[in-house]
């Protein structure tokens, strides 16, 4: 007996701005117990689909059907700014109306499911990115939903956390729909893919594991491109003959008319090859000039274990071209080290005077969400650059003219990441600090980003839990917080 459908989109249209569609006649269904990936480029509308499923957004046309009584839980990408001041118990209480008497017991079970122990009076904003990622997942699980929506769930998770999450998804006997750019993670459990085309705004359905689907899509694009090349050659030949015969008169003119009609039909057969799978252009991050010697000094670091911070002597000088990977499990203090070093208030370390800093924050705290993309990029420009150069650099990161006028708050998380990289190029820093730079970024862009970091001639301090990305980096030294 076939598994019943718990969710169905039937020819759904949606737009935020009139005549700028996000979805057009999008149709798909999810069966009970299925594990499906929602795939599409940054900004295509994947998170919009989640909003429609949750009922936060309403379709312009079409129908969204959810099985009677089916509950929905979501692990969002980030914790809201207004939630960071809550303690852990208050954070989970938001999931219920009214709050159940057994809330603490429910919290304990949800945290256990994501392999996380934390005092319930801890302030959410004090937790590391990896700890917040576990909290987001536990929040989705606490209601034991029939449909679990996971939006970039591996962001900030260490290897142990990702392994635990994979086991959980495989064992979860209800429906799971996942947005992620972590290909290895997706391939461990995906049974099929809903592909959202960012240009036609329609959905396509594929069956199979993630890598098989990616290969199938690649083969399809190649077939479409070959077909178009053949048609273009045929159309060009026909048009030349039409022009020749049209000037001959009599029967030749009739033949030209017939061939003109056939040529128009051939042009209609041209396939609109998907364009949304573009990769960002190769780029170089220019280094601040006239730098030499030491650009940063470290005398001690704070290591956090069992929610207690301990100062550890750790004397290091970071030279102009040193590329350093900071490693260790979630919650040990890596992001705190990077964030406070960048802010200039880390007690045991400092960046030397006159060194220009480029900081990529995992929560995009370096961006002003009220600014337009244009103003955000312009504010980061080093001396000597002009607006045409800025626009050219932005285009390399798939930031087009239309996006330039959008507020940072209106961008997808992936687009915010690309804006952050463009700002670093414009900035010409003397030291780069990266805190999980692969979060939200399309996996096709990662080799380009890794190569740019490798070619950068200034100092680099980086935290990343994405193993495949780290393998592509040229690292000179390792700061292993887990072994200090």
Radius of gyration, whole Å: 26 Å
Strand proportion: 15-25%
User: Uncertain regions: pLDDT < 50 for 5+ in a row?
Assistant: none
Q: What characteristic shape results from the CA principal axes?
A: globular
Main sheet summary: 6 strands, mixed
Report, as a whole number of angstroms, the end-to-end distance.
56 Å
Number of strands: 17
Q: What is the averaged pLDDT score? A: 89
What is the tally of helical segments?
Answer: 15
**Strands of the largest sheet, in order across it?**
5-6-7-3-8-9
Q: What is the SS-derived class? A: alpha/beta
Estimate the helix proportion, in percent: 25-40%
Describe the protein's topology.
Blueprint: E1 5-17, E2 20-31, E3 35-39, H1 46-54, E4 61-66, E5 72-75, H2 88-93, H3 103-113, H4 129-141, E6 147-151, H5 159-171, E7 175-179, H6 183-187, E8 192-196, E9 203-207, H7 210-246, H8 251-269, E10 294-305, E11 308-319, E12 323-327, H9 334-343, E13 349-351, E14 357-360, H10 373-379, H11 387-396, H12 401-404, H13 413-427, E15 431-435, H14 446-455, E16 459-463, H15 467-471, E17 477-480
Parallel strand pairs: 3-7, 3-8, 5-6, 6-7, 12-16, 12-17, 14-15, 15-16
Antiparallel strand pairs: 1-2, 1-4, 8-9, 10-11, 10-13
Helix pairs in contact: 3-4, 7-8, 10-13, 11-13
Report what the structure shows.
The chain has 484 residues and is an alpha/beta fold. The chain has helices spanning 46-54, 88-93, 103-113, 129-141, 159-171, 183-187, 210-246, 251-269, 334-343, 373-379, 387-396, 401-404, 413-427, 446-455, 467-471, and strands spanning 5-17, 20-31, 35-39, 61-66, 72-75, 147-151, 175-179, 192-196, 203-207, 294-305, 308-319, 323-327, 349-351, 357-360, 431-435, 459-463, 477-480. The chain has 15 helices and 17 strands. Strand 8 (192-196) and strand 9 (203-207) form a beta hairpin. Helix 3 (103-113) crosses helix 4, helix 7 (210-246) packs antiparallel against helix 8 (251-269) and helix 10 runs parallel beside helix 13. The longest helix has 37 residues, at 210-246.
């Amino acid at each position: 007996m076939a598994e019943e459908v718990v969710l169905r989109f039937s020819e759904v249209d949606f737009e935020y701005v009139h005549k700028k569609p996000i979805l057009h006649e999008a149709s798909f269904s999810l069966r009970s117990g299925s594990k499906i990936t929602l795939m599409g480029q940054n900004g295509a509308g994947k998170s919009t689909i989640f909003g429609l499923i949750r009922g936060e957004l309403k379709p312009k046309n079409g129908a969204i059907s959810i099985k009677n009584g089916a509950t929905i839980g979501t692990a969002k990408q980030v914790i809201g700014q207004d939630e960071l001041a809550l303690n852990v118990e208050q954070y989970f209480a938001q999931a219920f109306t009214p709050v159940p008497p057994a809330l603490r017991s429910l919290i304990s079970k949800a945290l256990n499911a994501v392999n996380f122990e934390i005092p319930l009076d801890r302030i959410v904003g004090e937790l590391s990115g990896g700890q917040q990622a576990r909290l987001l997942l536990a929040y989705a699980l606490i209601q034991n939903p029939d449909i679990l929506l996971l939006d970039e769930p591996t962001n900030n998770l260490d290897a142990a956390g990702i392994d635990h999450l994979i086991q959980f998804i495989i064992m979860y006997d209800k429906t799971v729909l996942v947005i992620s750019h972590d290909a290895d993670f997706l391939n461990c459990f995906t049974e099929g893919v809903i592909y959202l085309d960012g240009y036609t705004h329609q959905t396509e359905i594929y069956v199979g594991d993630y890598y098989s689907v990616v290969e199938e899509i690649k083969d399809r694009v190649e077939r479409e491109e070959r077909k178009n090349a053949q048609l273009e050659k045929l159309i060009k030949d026909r048009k030349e003959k039409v022009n020749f015969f049209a000037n001959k008169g009599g029967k030749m003119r009739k033949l030209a008319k017939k061939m003109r009609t056939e040529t128009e039909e051939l042009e209609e057969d041209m396939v609109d090859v998907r364009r949304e799978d573009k990769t960002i252009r190769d780029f170089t991050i220019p280094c601040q000039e006239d730098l030499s010697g030491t650009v940063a000094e470290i005398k001690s670091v704070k290591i956090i274990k069992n929610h207690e911070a301990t100062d550890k002597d750790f004397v290091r000088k970071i030279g102009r071209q040193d590329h350093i990977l900071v490693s260790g499990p979630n919650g040990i203090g890596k992001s705190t080290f990077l964030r406070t070093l960048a802010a200039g208030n880390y007690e045991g370390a400092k960046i030397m005077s006159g060194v220009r800093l480029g900081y990529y924050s995992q929560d995009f705290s370096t961006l002003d969400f009220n600014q337009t993309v244009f103003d955000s990029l312009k504010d980061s420009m080093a001396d000597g650059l002009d607006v045409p150069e800025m626009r050219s650099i932005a285009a390399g990161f798939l930031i087009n003219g239309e996006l330039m006028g959008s507020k940072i708050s209106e961008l997808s998380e992936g687009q915010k990441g690309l804006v952050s990289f463009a700002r670093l190029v414009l900035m010409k820093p003397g030291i780069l600090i990266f805190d999980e730079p692969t979060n939200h970024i399309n996996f096709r862009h990662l080799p380009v980003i890794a190569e740019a970091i490798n070619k950068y001639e200034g100092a680099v301090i980086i935290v990343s839990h994405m193993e495949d990305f780290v393998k592509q980096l040229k690292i000179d030294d390792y700061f292993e917080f887990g072994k200090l």
